[in-house]
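Input (structure):
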């Protein structure tokens, strides 16, 4: 019985790398379009996107590739650095194999057309040019044409904005048209949850996949891989014995056979679409059993199903405490990039209020404060017919109010009118007479630094004598402020990127209906999420939405509720 020869793993020309079976599958078939939904820890950026972008660079040298992101800040802080990390793991070296935000050195090949501005770009040594196109800065890609379109965290990408980039994926067919990557898409994400305002357009891409063709493509790619192994082995034998005519003949035959099979594979790869949903268990060998055990013990199981098992969530709009919260209450263009553009993509950059597009620097700021195991602070300003949520801050133990105040002062150090009108929980007034109340502590933490020096800020405590705010009162006010149907009230809109936890808290807050002894029904917010493990509180608890409640449930707004009279109670069970 003959034994199939494999690549000699001990050979100095062979480099061993770890890759899970799914990443190997993607790298093996290399179709035109790839849409992947993968659980957390599946190495979507550092492995799949990094490897595929390298393959594109080798196969379409000099091509232009559009890289879409929901915001430019997210792209340069998270996504692009992850891909670059993957490149470095796979052997690429900065300034030798790629450059960021810079004109390439002389040993690089050039992109197929002149580049007028090297900002917002990454360029490979093959001349392949990756350009960041964020949905909050669409002008960056205006007028360009691209040969491939990529994106990570597709659940945050709006389909209608992606469709504006799609017509630009064109041009230079004669130069690049032989590559199956030409005109294709590469998008990855974890499972979208529309119940939390995420976009699930990627799920429809499953209809574009010809499963039978993909099965055939896998079989064909495996045969080509066998031909490549045979080629490498015969090449080694010939190199070891150059005078051996038999070894030379076998090597030449293997080379011709491999090229024939590679051409068949190239033609078959063209215009193919691969859609796949994979759980985090695909990387179980690296993540280990303990990783999943810990997640099961600490995560809500519904979240585990979506984020780890990649099971699509079910919509349950009727049980939301903020049922009117929708895309109309979120703005995506809250950044201005004048200062950030003076830095390179991979430079260290400290954000400040100067990066906020809609802040009014000459007017006071409003703040909503909720204290406890997690301390939450949301900042906003009224803008005519809109109330804009601009920024959020939070601390977890052991950090507390001093750290929260310090973070606020640092971020808003360039604000011109240093006046904060702070709306806080009534409970934050406890122990006021001895100076231990939370309201006084945060006021001191903002007005004075750790050395007792004045910061220039003046904090006005707005809720010192207020009673508890009924959850039903908050529910009614939010219905009207989120719908925009009450002309006397501003509509609430919050910054998608700078208020992520506030947005997530409102999207996940659940409603409870309670019935008293007399049969009267009242609406309450399910606060059970506040008992989650500490590290899960920012994105999953109702803490941040409570800070928003104190910010917005102010007398001047409550008095404008249609047919509503304000009820204050000191009953903590209704708080």
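Output (sequence):
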């Amino acid at each position: 019985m003959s034994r199939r020869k494999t690549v000699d793993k001990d050979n100095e020309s062979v480099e061993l790398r770890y890759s899970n079976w799914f990443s190997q599958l993607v790298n093996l078939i290399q179709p035109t379009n790839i849409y992947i939904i993968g659980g957390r820890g599946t190495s979507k950026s550092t492995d799949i996107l990094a490897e595929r972008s390298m393959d594109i660079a080798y196969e379409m040298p000099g091509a232009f590739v559009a890289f879409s992101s929901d915001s430019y800040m997210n792209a340069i802080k998270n996504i692009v650095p992850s891909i670059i990390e993957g490149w470095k793991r796979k052997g690429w070296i900065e300034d030798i194999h790629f450059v960021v935000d810079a004109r390439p050195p002389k040993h690089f090949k050039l992109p197929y057309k002149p580049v007028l501005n090297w900002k917002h770009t990454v360029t490979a040594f093959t001349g392949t040019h990756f350009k960041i196109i964020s949905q909050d800065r669409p002008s960056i890609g205006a007028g360009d044409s691209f040969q491939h379109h990529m994106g990570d965290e597709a659940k945050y990408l709006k389909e209608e904005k992606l469709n504006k980039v799609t017509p630009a994926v064109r041009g230079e067919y004669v130069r690049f048209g032989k590559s199956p990557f030409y005109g294709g898409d590469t998008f990855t994400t974890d499972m979208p949850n529309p119940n939390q305002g995420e976009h699930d357009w990627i799920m429809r891409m499953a209809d574009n996949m010809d499963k039978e063709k993909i099965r055939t493509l896998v079989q064909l790619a495996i045969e080509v891989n066998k031909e490549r192994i045979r080629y490498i082995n015969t090449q080694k034998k010939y190199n070891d014995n150059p005078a051996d005519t038999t070894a030379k003949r076998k090597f030449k035959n293997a080379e011709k056979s491999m090229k024939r099979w590679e051409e068949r594979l190239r033609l078959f790869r063209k215009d193919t679409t691969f859609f796949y949903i994979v759980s985090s268990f695909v990387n179980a060998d690296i993540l280990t059993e303990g990783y999943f055990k810990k997640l099961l013990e600490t995560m809500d199981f519904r979240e585990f199903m979506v984020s780890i098992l990649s099971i699509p969530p079910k919509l349950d709009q009727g049980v939301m405490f903020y049922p009117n919260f929708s895309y109309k209450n979120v703005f995506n263009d809250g950044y201005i990039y004048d200062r950030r553009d003076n830095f390179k993509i991979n430079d260290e950059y400290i954000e400040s209020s100067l990066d906020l597009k809609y802040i009014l620097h000459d007017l006071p700021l409003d703040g909503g404060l909720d204290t406890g195991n997690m301390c939450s602070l949301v900042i906003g300003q009224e803008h005519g017919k809109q109330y804009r949520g601009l920024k959020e801050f939070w601390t977890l133990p052991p950090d507390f109010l001093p750290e929260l105040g310090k973070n606020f002062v640092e971020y808003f150090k360039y604000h011109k009118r240093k006046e904060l009108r702070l709306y806080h929980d009534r409970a934050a007034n406890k122990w006021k007479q001895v100076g231990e109340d939370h309201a006084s502590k945060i006021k001191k933490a903002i007005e004075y630094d750790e050395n007792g020096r004045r910061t220039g800020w003046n904090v006005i405590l707005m809720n010192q004598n207020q009673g508890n705010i009924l959850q039903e009162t908050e529910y009614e006010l939010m219905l009207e402020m989120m719908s925009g149907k009450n002309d006397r009230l501003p509509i609430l809109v919050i910054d998608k990127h700078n208020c992520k936890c506030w947005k997530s808290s409102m999207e996940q807050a659940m409603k409870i209906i309670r019935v008293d002894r007399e049969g009267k029904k009242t609406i309450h917010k399910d606060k059970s999420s506040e008992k989650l493990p500490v590290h899960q509180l920012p994105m999953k608890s109702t803490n941040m939405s409570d800070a928003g409640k104190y910010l917005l449930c102010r007398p001047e707004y409550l008095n404008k509720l249609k047919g509503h009279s304000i009820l204050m109670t000191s009953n903590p069970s209704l708080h």
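Notes: The CA atoms of residues 420 and 459 lie 5 Å apart. The chain has three domains: 21-209, 215-271, 324-574.
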